[in-house]
Amino acid sequence: MAVAVLLFSCNNDDGKRLSGDLVTNPKSAEKPTDVKPVIQFEKTEYDFGKILQGEVVSYTFHFTNAGNAPLIITSVDKSCGCTAGDFPREPIAPGQRGDIKITYDSKGHFGFQSKAVVVNSNTVPSQTTLRIKADVKTPDQL
User: What is the CB neighbour count within 10 angstroms for residue 85?
Assistant: First the structure.
């Protein structure tokens, strides 16, 4: 009896199956499945060298959307309150360039500093880490 039910349920075709025509349809085969943005930075690290304690310095990281879909940067997460990031709020078209400006305030810091900033976007992977470095000196050290 269980075998009959199993066979009956296997042969149950209530019309909800998808047609195999979708697989062989040349129109669906033409659509690219790898449409995605790609963020490509000229460099992902910058060293300010020696700076005076209390100095505020900035560096602009340049990038290109090397993909084939609009690039959207959703946020720039900083590792501490001493950094700030300014990034484009509008989508970057394929082939277009953009800039992310990172500002570092060395007030209260001394010695070697390395700060990470994480760029979140609609790329794969969705995060890119940018890093700034500085050797913060007090006035008597210069």
Answer: 18
The amino acid that residue 33 corresponds to is T
Q: Tell me the per-residue pLDDT of 44-64, one tens digit each, with 9 for 90 and over.
A: 999 999 999 999 999 999 999
What CATH number does the domain containing 117 carry? 2.60.40.10
* H or E element at residue 141: none
Residue range 85-114, pLDDT digits in tens: 999 999 999 999 999 999 999 999 999 999
Dihedral class, residue 71 (left if φ above 0, else alpha if ψ from -120 to 50, else beta) = beta
Residue 20 lies in a domain: no
Number of domains the chain contains: 1
* DSSP-derived secondary structure letter, 92: B
Separation of alpha carbons 121 and 5, rounded Å: 52
Owning domain of residue 60: 39-141
Residues 6+ apart with CB under 8 A from 82: 104, 105, 106, 107, 108, 109, 115
